[in-house]
Amino acid sequence: xxxxxxxxxxLPAHVRTARLVVVAAxxxxxxxDERVDELRLALGEACSRAVGLHRxxxxxxxxxVTVQDDAGRLTVVVTDCGPxxxxxxDDVAGxxxxxxAEEDDDVVAPDVALAVVTGLVDDVTxxxxxxxxxxxxxxxLAARQPGTVL
Amino acid sequence: xxxxxxxxxxxxxxVVVVGGEIDVYTAPKLREQLxxxxxxxxxxxxxxxxxxxxxxxxxxGVLVGGLKRVRAHEGSLRLVCTQERIxxxxxxxxxxxxxxxxxxxxxxxxxxx
Lengths: 150, 113
Prior knowledge:
- The structure holds 2 protein chains of 2 kinds.
- By secondary structure, chain A is an alpha+beta fold.
- Chain A has helices spanning 12-29, 33-57, 92-97, 110-120, and strands at residues 2-8, 63-70, 73-79, 123-129, 132-140.
- Chain B has one domain: 2-Layer Sandwich (Transcription Regulator spoIIAA).
- Chain B contains 4 helices and 5 strands, in the order ββαβαβαβα.
- Chain A binds chain B through residues 12-13, 15-16, 19, 37, 40-41, 44-45, 48, 51-52, 91-94, 96-97, 100-101, 103, 105-108, 112-113, 115-116, 119-120, and chain B through 21, 23-25, 27-28, 31, 54, 56-58, 60-62, 64-65, 68-69, 71-72, 85, 88-89, 92-95, 97-98.
């Protein structure tokens, strides 16, 4: 069962909202500080990517974020309705440096965000589909003290 | 925390002090600042990131955009950063090879390579 479920309108400001909520849920689930930093960045990347794609392709659809805490692990899933994700690039720096300076560089290619997610998180799966892409990230949780109420 | 920006001149360098979070929401402000500096003829920039709490790939994109703009005028863009969690994203993306990254503003301002 999802502990936390978010539906984000595709606005850049809500990426921060998602980071704050998911980090709070992860802390409560007992994720250690180093992994919380990792999650904050990875979730931010996955959500920025999804929000950017929705703004272009599905402005009326929400981006879905769920957090689950069971069987000693935390699972965070970001689901978008954009075009299916392509392969993660090998040379991210090269990708970023391509093109001239007058281009709109606020919009980082969605595959760059995915490259950061897959570079950061050990246990991550990216499932591209016809209706969008699902990014699933998992982190192990330390054993909870007996009697702790989630 | 929101993004904070301030600039000062040190010799022929312009130091941009950035604080707070650079993400998809705030990165456009940093982008405007870098464009304004280059438009006003300041081509040797030092971006002090010691006060940055969060940086994502959108922020990286803006820094890379700034680098391209100053390079078009034979300028330079140096970063000051010692925070491990910020440096990590530069390593993952291979951008440590693209940006000179310094341990202090003094070091960055003095650098000539």
